[in-house]
Design goal:
By secondary structure, this protein is α+β, with helices and mostly antiparallel strands. Helices cover about 45% and strands about 15% of the residues. The chain has a single domain, classed as Cytochrome p450. It is built from 16 helices and twelve strands. The longest helix has 24 residues. The structure holds protoporphyrin IX containing FE (HEM).
């Protein structure tokens, strides 16, 4: 695996192993064993398995520990799941609109014919969307926003799977830079919370309420670390998925025009862009005794401590039809026709079963609203013919191998949605 030894293109390496060994095979790497599964029965089992038997939480934690300081995981009181209730998402919608305004203002400031890498644009947008939602508007105001962005980008947990080639060097120096960024983030967030109104730090105050029994200084530090872990989690997928939606529509102007006129179609494009850009490895670490994994032909007994895994770039593109960008394959948020698939679970955007992404409605709203507002305001022209996913990455939605530069020209006429004039 790429965190144990140099593997320039881990997805291609696992695809080659599958071509040679079939849909179920074992990988021994470092001091760990992985059972990779790609067949319909095994993948269906994978998404249904109970957390107590084979844990996603433990597998993810092990992955993130390759980058994040261990102490960030101790004593957390806010789980991301708790921040995506119906009322929360309704509150975030207003904040998202303001965050998108901020991103559009930054493109405007570059003047006509602005040239921007799609992922640099959406990365800052993702920070705005997230920090406004679970922190509050105080966290996206200049100049603190730029300081926060710098520190979060350095601490970025997704380096563990986007740049797995770096994890040995990070471990060798005891995660020194990460520890320093974490301390600076806690100090900065505490300072912003102390200096800002309750209204402008509404999300952070809600997290603070979970620390009411602790003396004030420790409570703020604890709540700041809760916020940091949630925000780092949001950085894995959201900005990259918005980037691909922007790119996919910029490459297809006719589809973009139709999608701007029909929000259902725009959401189907968001699902289709996410499906094709998935680079995720999905993992479950076996917890108790052993588990039995059926793969159609036989049953594999996987012992405690081993990891069962599957890889979305291989399943999501598992046929010539699935290689194509075809938003009409979606009906609502589900595939319209699964008769050609052995199991619905062989295509994954936001997951299946008990671990389905709790942030799916929030993310789809953020993706579609951000892209709709951008296309309303600008003619977006790609300065490329195709964008390649980053080869070293094994996890999350793909980043790009090279910059994906888009040109933004003010659209001929302003739409009624435009609120920045
Ligand atoms: C386009 C954006 C996103 C995509 C494509 C996405 C995708 C996914 C997928 C595929 C899973 C299931 C993983 C598995 O079964 O192993 C998942 C779970 C999860 N996602 Fe997302 N996600 C997105 C945005 C977010 C955001 C913004 C957050 C906020 C922090 C978030 C938090 C979570 C959490 C906490 C889980 C675990 C749920 C559980 O274990 O019960 N996701 N996501």
């Amino acid at each position: 695996m790429p965190w144990d030894e140099a593997t320039p293109d881990p997805v291609a390496a696992i695809a080659a192993a599958r071509a040679e060994l079939g849909d179920t095979f074992q990988v021994h790497s470092g001091d760990a064993d992985y059972l990779f599964v790609f067949g319909a029965d095994a993948v269906r089992w994978f998404y249904a398995v109970d957390e107590a038997a084979a844990s996603k939480g433990v597998a993810d934690w092990r992955m993130l520990l390759r980058k994040l300081p261990d102490e960030l995981f101790l004593g957390r009181r806010t789980l991301p799941h708790e921040l995506f209730g119906r009322d929360d998402v309704a509150r975030y919608r207003t904040l998202l609109d303001g965050a998108i305004d901020g991103a559009i203002r930054e493109i405007d400031e570059l003047g006509g014919e602005a040239m921007l890498d799609a992922f640099s644009l959406t990365r800052r947008l993702g920070h705005r969307l997230g920090l406004a939602s679970w922190g509050g508007t105080a966290f996206v105001r200049s100049p603190v926003f730029d300081q926060l962005v710098g520190l979060f980008d350095q601490l970025d947990a997704s380096d563990a799977f986007v740049r797995p080639d770096l994890v040995a060097a990070i471990a060798a120096v005891g995660k020194a830079e990460e520890r320093s960024s974490l301390a600076d983030l806690v100090a900065l967030i505490s300072e912003i919370a102390a200096e800002s109104t309750s209204e402008s730090t509404a999300g952070f105050r809600a997290i603070m309420a979970r620390w009411a029994d602790v003396e004030p200084e420790a409570a703020v530090a604890g709540a700041a670390q809760d916020l940091i872990l949630v925000h780092l989690g949001s950085m894995s997928n959201l900005f990259a998925a918005i980037g691909w939606l922007l790119i996919d529509l910029a490459l297809r102007p006719d589809l973009a025009a139709s999608a701007m006129a029909e929000s259902g179609l725009l959401e189907r494009c968001a699902l289709e862009s996410t499906r094709l850009a998935q680079r995720s490895i999905m993992m479950r670490e076996v917890m108790a005794g052993a588990v039995e994994v059926p793969d159609g032909d036989r049953t594999y007994r996987v012992p405690r401590g081993a990891t069962v895994a599957t890889l979305l770039p291989l399943t999501n593109r598992g046929s010539p039809d699935l290689e194509r960008y075809r938003p009409e394959r979606w009906k609502g948020r589900r595939l319209a026709d699964i008769s050609h698939l052995g199991a619905r679970e062989l295509v994954t955007t936001f997951g299946h079963g008990p671990h389905t992404c709790p942030a799916q409605p929030f993310s789809l709203y953020a993706m579609t609203e951000a892209v709709r507002r951008i296309f309303d305001r600008y003619a977006v022209t790609p300065q490329f013919t195709a964008v390649e996913p980053r080869r070293s990455q094994i996890g999350g939605v793909a980043r790009s191998e090279e910059a994906a530069v888009l040109r933004f020209d003010p659209a001929g006429s302003q739409s009624p949605h435009d609120r920045l004039t």
